[in-house]
Amino acid sequence: MSRFARECLFGILLLVLTGSASATKFENLLGQVKPVGSGELSFWGMTIYRATLLAPEGRYQADQLHALQIDYQSSFSRNQLTWASVNHMEPLLESYVDRQSLYQQLSAVLRDVEAGDQITGVHHPDEGAVFYSNGQLIGRLHDPAVAAAFFSIWLDPRTREPDLRARLLGQVR
Hints:
InterPro entries: Chalcone_isomerase. By secondary structure, the chain is α+β, with helices and mostly antiparallel strands. Helix content is about 35%, strand content about 30%.
């Protein structure tokens, strides 16, 4: 199957999944997309979210299509999620980016979340990213640099959460 066909099927699959979809459903519905790894982010003993990295054939490559599925265990406003993302991204950006512009771009693709909600971001390197909330398309990041920086929050070696990164990359079980 060509890369383009795989990416199209992957996007269609995400559109039909609901918020309760698990990585296992991705495997069952499209054998090329498998979890690479997963882990939880906790703060003061409280689980904030569980994240799962998905990639074709379960192999993450930064320059290839991949997705990050986040299942929230706590509630947050769009504003909280957006500012937290901006604050985590800023040190990872290659060049200066206006914070307000970054906030506006991210605010367009993030939503308020309640415990049990899911946001899935699909990163198309060199093109941008597409975001889904509980299986519904919510927006796109058209700027490839901003999209890459967003996924760097979890996947860059300089992340603030190196243990979670190692779990997402399947380096720790």
